[in-house]
Design brief:
Elements lengths: L9 E6 L3 H12 L7 E6 L7 H5 L6 H4 L1 H9 L4 E5 L9 H7 L2 E4 L5 E2 L12 E3 H8 L16 E5 L3 H11 L12 H8 L5 E5 L11 H6 L6 E5 L8 H9 L1 H14 L8 E6 L2 E7 L6 E9 L5 E11 L2 E4 L3 E2 L17 E2 L2 E4 L2 E8 L2 H4 L7 H16 L13 H8 L5 E2 H17 L10 H8 L5
Parallel strand pairs: 1-2, 1-4, 2-3, 4-18, 6-14, 7-8, 7-14, 8-10, 9-10
Antiparallel strand pairs: 3-19, 5-15, 11-12, 12-13, 16-17, 17-18
The structure holds NADP nicotinamide-adenine-dinucleotide phosphate (NAP).
The site of NADP nicotinamide-adenine-dinucleotide phosphate has 26 residues, from helix 7.
């Protein structure tokens, strides 16, 4: 049982209410007795919890989306509070948190996209997949009119699961998407889409692609999109054969791709071109994107690929780079800029070889943007095990009143949204959905979310 008098056990703040943060809270509560109780406050910069489960997992992946129900149960446990709409660095500092919490776990994720570093990358019409995902997920950071789909031909660079999500959302019909929680403004744009051809580019071979088989397969099962694979681009080198021998998932991916390479297009309205061994060299166009110049690559026998010097252009009016996420520095913590993570030892934040007392990390900001939602459970457990092992020597917060942080935030004019506020947003979204025979329609604008949460200006 967690204690509730705010004086004896551990007081822990978790920054980030995505899977890593919530799994960390759950792990803390499960062993709370060993330290005389634990009180956990989970902060998030948005008024809504669940991080990438709400704003990253594709809207049509309902089973993964339903992880939110399991995360919700953690928030409903005694001893846990949600404090949304509060941003670390803007509204509160790590130092301030340490005045009211014995330990702080940062689980703020990896917020920005990696870049290609090629000419034309910033031309109008060239976007990051991260921005597109945020937009179609109804993230309050994304302007409602951030995207239109006037393009006929779109290049998606990268062959990871995010690229697969982006390609699938672009290729699906609105009928295949309208049962999801996609906001109306997104469905309207998808409905008016002119897209006929989507090119997904892998710079290495099919065996080196990062997507998983289940996600890949879905691309071959769409109502109105053919998938086209050139058998020439599925050829393997010794390193690929070796990797296949050890990995069933890679063999399954290749099986799927080989089957697709034998398919004859059925004349559907859209075509997904899965291309391998092509490296983007330049996004072309004078004032707007008109194409992508790519260089043919060849596998180098050791898992990599080298340029062949042969280049050609792919016609495109829109480009998405989907080449991975990157963490951004956490104000007040050291940062490993190369890897986009906070340096740590089993979750303990490290600076100049020494531990920063009371500070921990979990999730993508700790290990980088890898793995699936469930990966965060083991990751959070490791961090919490370190925290419990340190429990006796944690610097104890001087201020132990659970109300103290809220008072401090109110004094700064911040507008924290607590669990009841989020529940009100949740209900409002479900009511919007009900009116259209859908489970939920997301509220995409911050102010509208705050109004739905019950916030009123004095
Ligand atoms: P990712 O899995 O790391 O894939 C990034 C892709 O970008 C790779 O194909 C990579 O190729 C390519 N790339 C990187 N730099 C490039 C460059 N300069 N030019 C061309 N290609 C380049 O990243 P992600 O797709 O963003 O996914 C992040 C994590 O979220 C992954 O763990 C993913 O599985 C997970 N996720 C899971 C799901 C799901 O389970 N349904 C959905 C979405 C995301 P190289 O390998 O050659 O570097």
């Amino acid at each position: 049982m967690s204690q509730d008098n705010g004086t004896n056990g551990l007081r822990v703040a978790i920054v980030g209410s995505g899977p890593a943060g919530v799994y960390a809270a759950d792990a803390l509560l499960k062993q709370a007795e060993s330290v005389g109780g634990v009180e956990v406050d989970i902060l998030d910069r948005l008024p809504a919890p669940y991080g990438l489960v709400r704003y990253g997992v594709a809207p049509d992946h309902l089973k993964i989306k339903s992880i939110a129900l399991a995360l919700k149960k953690v928030f409903e446990k005694p001893g846990v509070r949600f404090i949304g709409n509060i941003e670390l660095g803007r509204d509160v500092s790590v130092e301030e948190l340490q005045q009211t919490y014995d330990a702080v776990i940062i689980a703020s994720g990896a917020a920005v996209d990696r870049r290609l570093g090629i000419d034309g990358e910033d031309l109008p019409g060239s976007f990051s997949a991260t921005d597109f995902v945020a937009w179609y997920s109804g993230h309050p950071d994304a302007a409602l009119d951030a995207f239109t789909l006037g393009a006929r031909s779109i290049v998606v660079v990268g062959v990871g699961n995010v690229a697969v999500d982006v390609v699938r959302i672009l290729a699906k019909t609105v009928d295949e998407l309208k049962h999801t929680d996609l906001p109306d403004h997104v469905l309207d744009v998808l409905d008016a889409s002119n897209v006929t051809d989507i090119y997904m580019l892998g710079r290495r071979g099919p065996v080196q692609a990062k997507f998983t088989t289940k996600e890949l397969r879905e691309l071959g099962e769409l109502a109105d999109a053919d998938v086209i694979v050139d058998p020439e681009e599925l050829q393997l080198d010794a390193a690929s054969e070796e990797a296949l021998a050890d990995d069933r998932a890679l063999r399954q991916n290749l099986e799927v791709l080989r089957e697709w390479s034998t398919r004859k297009p059925e004349g559907k309205s859209r075509r997904i071109h899965m291309r391998f061994l092509l490296r983007p060299v330049e996004v072309t166009g004078e004032d707007v994107v008109t194409g992508v110049t790519v260089e043919r690559t060849a596998l180098d026998g050791s898992g990599g690929a080298k340029g062949t010097g042969e280049t050609f252009d792919i016609d495109a009016q829109m480009v998405f780079r989907s080449v991975g996420y990157k963490g951004i520095p956490v104000p007040g913590l050291p940062f490993d800029d190369r890897n986009g993570v906070v340096p740590h030892d089993a979750g303990r934040v490290m600076q100049d070889g020494g531990q920063m007392p009371g500070l921990y990390v979990a999730g993508w900001i700790k290990r980088g943007p890898t793995g699936v939602v469930g990966t965060n459970k083991g990751d959070a457990n490791e961090t919490v095990a370190s925290l419990f092992a340190d429990a006796d020597k944690l610097p104890r917060a001087a201020e132990r009143d659970p109300q103290a942080l809220l008072d401090q935030l109110a004094g700064k004019g911040c507008r924290p949204v607590l669990w009841e506020g989020w529940c009100a947003i949740d209900e409002a979204e479900m009511a919007l959905g009900k009116a259209q025979g859908r489970d939920r329609i997301k509220i995409a604008e911050l102010e509208a979310m705050l109004i739905a949460s019950g916030w009123r200006e004095d």
